[in-house]
Amino acid sequence: MNTPKSGINEAVVGIGSNIRPRRHFRRVRRLIKKNFHVAAESRPIKTKPVGFEDQPDFLNGAVRIRTEWDRDALIRWMKQTEHKLGRVRTENPFGPRTMDLDLLVWNGMVMDRDVFDREFLYVLVKNVWPNLPEK
Predict the structure, then answer these.
(1) Is residue 119, in this structure, part of any structural domain at all?
(2) 50 FRET partner, CA 20 to 30 A, in 18, 81, 102, 118?
(3) 96 vs 130: CA distance, rounded Å
(4) CATH number for 88
């Protein structure tokens, strides 16, 4: 993958899965550690589905990484990794998935409003990035 460099960047990536979640968590963590410097990892937590309840519970986590990649390159890598781990996007954005990777924080800026709107995400991000502003 051609990865434009833009100095050292720090990001918090959210991880979620509800199809064979333990297996997919192990796999994605290996891939993250292979490609980035991991500064902190949360413990995975089990959460109820949001938006479409008729599906298995999710396993969610967060990881803080350091990278020379720019934000667009990181997002491309995340989408490619979801695909590699079997994610199939459907019309239902809240449906079951093997892997869901979300850029939650980029260089100290919260990129996803869900961090403040969903308590479990706030707790996960705060666990790996203690400087997260209060809600």
Answers:
(1) yes
(2) 81
(3) 30
(4) 3.30.70.560
For residue 101, give the 3-state DSSP assignment.
Answer: strand
Domain that holds residue 122: 5-128
> What phi and psi, each to the nearest 5 degrees, are found at residue 130?
-60, -20
* Identity at 46, one-letter amino acid code: K
State the DSSP H helix or E strand holding residue 105, giving kind and residue range, or none if neither: strand 100-106
Residue-wise pLDDT for 73-116, tens only, equals 999 999 999 999 987 776 766 667 889 999 999 999 999 999 99
The total number of structural domains in the chain stands at 1
Q: What is the rounded distance in angstroms from the CA atom of residue 116 to the CA atom of residue 35?
A: 28
pTM above 0.85, yes or no: yes
